[in-house]
Design goal:
Blueprint: H1 3-31, E1 67-77, E2 80-89, E3 94-106, E4 112-122, E5 126-136, E6 144-149, E7 156-157, E8 165-173, E9 180-187, E10 193-203, E11 209-220, E12 225-231, E13 242-248
Antiparallel strand pairs: 1-2, 2-5, 3-4, 3-6, 3-7, 8-9, 9-12, 10-11, 10-13
Length: 252
Amino acid sequence: MSWATRRKSLFTLGTIVFILLIVGIPGYFILNEPPTCSDGKKNQDEVGIDRGGPCSILDITQVTPHTVLWARSFEVIPGVYSAVSYIDNPNINAGSDAVPYTLKLFDDAGILIAERKNITFITPNSINPIFEGGIATGERKPTKAFLAFDETPAWEIRDSLAQNISVRNQLLQNEESAPKVTAEVVNTGVDSLGDVEVVVVLFNRKDNAIAASKTIIGHLGVGASEPVVFTWPKSFDVPVSRFEILPRIPHQ
């Protein structure tokens, strides 16, 4: 083999090696990229694509659907209403951090008189009260309330934090003039809690909700307690038979 031929062969071989290095090394890492929960593939014992298995987001087949139990509205002052809805999430270790919803109020003729859009969270294995206040209705009076989620919740593995909250010293006062409910919310867990949502719902003798209100505790340290007070500007139309205070804690 002549020197020119050997030189040409070495050049060709070098070119091939160069191309293999340029194409092969990136290709190797692309083809051997470790699976993740956001790669759009079902490749690591997932139940669905990027759902279930090692992924925190659950597949829809792994959860029991939530249920909107009821929704009601209440007059606070003429032309201004509040509303509350009970959402049942039976899943023990599944919740959703951000679910958009729409609340609609209708009059007795079925005419839509108010609409409120917002975003809420759903805690595991509990009744979730969703409260909306300050709803202006003008001269119309709502007789029906409906709440629906605007999209299917993205269910994630979540622990219930409700067991870390205790509500003590619950008291209803001034029922015949300016009703007031007071209580003490205590953090009995081992971690500080933030943005604790506390909703109170009052019921009549037929166990229908007749009023509701909400407050938020920005920070509740370990072992700390925080007083909560709920007030209404006028007496209720019917006597209160019972009331319940429901704390909700978003994912921390």
